[in-house]
Write a structure and sequence with these properties.
Blueprint: H1 2-31, H2 42-53, H3 63-83, H4 93-122, H5 130-135, H6 143-154, H7 156-160, H8 164-189, H9 200-230, H10 239-250, H11 259-298, H12 305-310, H13 317-321
Biased composition (Low complexity): 293-314
InterPro entries: MCP, MCP_dom_sf, MCP_transmembrane, Mitochondrial_Carrier
Main location: mitochondrion
């Protein structure tokens, strides 16, 4: 479990760096209203952020998810692997969906405050030049300051954990789709049905495919979560009030706003996250297995014949010495 956490942590850092600019654009589009429209679409948002806020404008608030998403990935892959023990056959689509849902539920309690900080920092200083932004007054001085002020104003439940219900509503179906989608891609496009036998470019495509599948089933919840977390404390009575008011003011299209940059973000983020996790797991688990094989081959030299003549049936360990390298398989 410790290794799964470490692999997921490294994979999370890699994926965050690759996809964060798209996430900033997604949040900006999700939270703007028709009455205060700043961007005319995804491309316009990219151009305006680059011109007005420089390249650093895309990475506002990244300190929180840089550690947070890495921590979240560590939790997800650890919990998902551990929860496989609840099923006799953990590699079926049903079992993968259930273990993914469990992992999504657990990590949401960590993810919610991290995304609250990320969203509020991403919305800070919109349209201000980087030099001007560095000198201008702004509400939050960083992730810790944002958490501290959120807690002092509204407490733990309504402040730091604001939007938890929408995070749960988003992440449970999202991860329930994520792992089966990866399994589907592997069994469809791998000649042997194993991830280890796929070329790297197919693993990257598979990571993008799983990310898009996960976001497709959960995206409307993410829109409401972003709007609710970015809003001032008394604009909405709760997440349901946020959903109703958003729908009445802007129609059903509000629930798809920012979906294009979100899917674009899913490609580099997940194309690096899962394959990096799989590569680390494959490399280090294989190395560990090779190390454990060496001691067992040296001992039989001192006890040559008693074991080989009486119980020759104990030769199945070769099958254990080469375990499945598929990251979705249990360890």
């Amino acid at each position: 479990m410790a290794l799964d956490f470490g692999f997921g942590f490294v994979a999370g850092v890699t994926g965050t760096i690759a996809g964060y600019p798209f996430d900033t654009v997604k949040v900006r589009l999700q939270t703007q209203t028709l009455n205060h429209r700043i961007y005319n679409g995804s491309l316009d948002c990219f151009i305006k952020i680059a011109k007005q806020e420089s390249i650093l404008g895309f990475y506002k608030g990244m300190a929180s998810p840089m550690f947070g998403v890495a921590l979240i990935n560590g939790i997800v892959f650890s919990v998902q692997n551990v929860s496989k023990s609840l099923f006799d056959n953990p590699d079926t689509y049903t079992a993968l969906a259930m273990t993914g849902a469990i992992a999504g539920c657990v990590q949401a309690f960590v993810c919610s405050p991290i995304e609250l900080v990320k969203t509020r920092l991403q919305m800070q200083g919109i349209g201000q030049q980087r030099k001007l932004f560095a000198l201008s007054t702004h509400l939050y001085n960083g992730p810790i300051d944002c958490l501290r002020k959120s807690y002092s104003r509204r407490g733990l439940r309504q402040g730091v954990m604001r939007g938890l219900s929408m995070t749960l509503a988003r992440d449970i179906p999202s991860f329930a789709a994520y792992f089966p989608a990866w399994q589907f891609f592997v069994t469809t496009f791998s000649s042997t049905g194993k991830e280890a036998d796929m070329p790297m470019y197919m693993s990257l495509l598979g990571g993008g495919f799983t990310g898009i599948a996960a976001w497709t089933v959960s995206y409307p919840f993410d829109v409401i979560k972003s709007r609710y977390q970015a809003s001032r404390d008394h604009v909405y009575k709760g997440v349901w009030d946020c959903a109703v008011k958003s729908f009445r003011a802007e129609g059903w299209q509000v629930f798809t706003r920012g979906f294009l940059p979100c899917t674009l973000r899913a490609v580099p983020t997940n194309a690096f996250t899962y394959p990096v996790y799989a590569l680390l797991k494959q490399t280090f688990d294989t190395a560990r297995d090779e190390e454990t094989v060496v001691p067992t081959t040296t001992k039989p030299v001192s006890k040559p014949k008693p074991v080989s003549t009486s119980k020759k049936v104990i030769s199945p360990p070769p099958s254990q010495a080469t375990p499945s390298l598929t990251p979705i398989q249990s360890i």
